[in-house]
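Appendix B, Record 12. Input sequence as logged:
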Amino acid sequence: MLLTALLLAAVLITACGMTPVEDIEATLFAEADLIRAEATAIRATAEAAADRLRGTMTAAEAYLTHRRGVNAALLSTARAGFAPTAQVIANVFGGTPEAITEGRRWFVKTGTASQVRQADGCSAGPQDRFTPDTPTIYATFQAFNIAAGTPLSVNWLHEGQSVHQEGFDLGGNHSEICLWFSLDPSVTPFTPGAWSVQLYAEGFPLEGPMLFTIRDA
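Logged structural output:
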């Protein structure tokens, strides 16, 4: 590209009848202009590539931070020596599980939420992203065929580190009931990052933790 431009400049100089000294000066100026133009283009391309790289690295770091929190939460559960049993498996893949119709105890995690319905205590809408100024975060779930006195508990974790635990014993027998645990900033600060919440029944985890993030608005 540069050679072609120099040849073109030389032809133009010759056509204009310039002296040899003028030819040299014109060629040098033309070469300098071309070098500056190419340097500017290279710098702009490099800056654009650097911006894309920084964006990719930021996204990758956020993902890795989240995964580290998740892995730490899973590891802490495994180290506790808990083994889920059939009566506390939480997933329902469509329809009514046979265990429920047979009268066996069953749990269904319904996610984290910022509100629960006052009428029945069920989640008002699951969400997995919150801000530090969220008034309350709920860990919601449903229980079927559950007996009075069943101990239920929760462990809230930030970046894999436990920040709050609590529990209660169910007050009555229920064929179906919505239940929840809540967390608010007066108990522990809603620090941005990767969070998880693990539910337990009689000390056994209700499958894996529910994951969510807290981000600055």
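DSSP finds three helices and nine strands in the chain.
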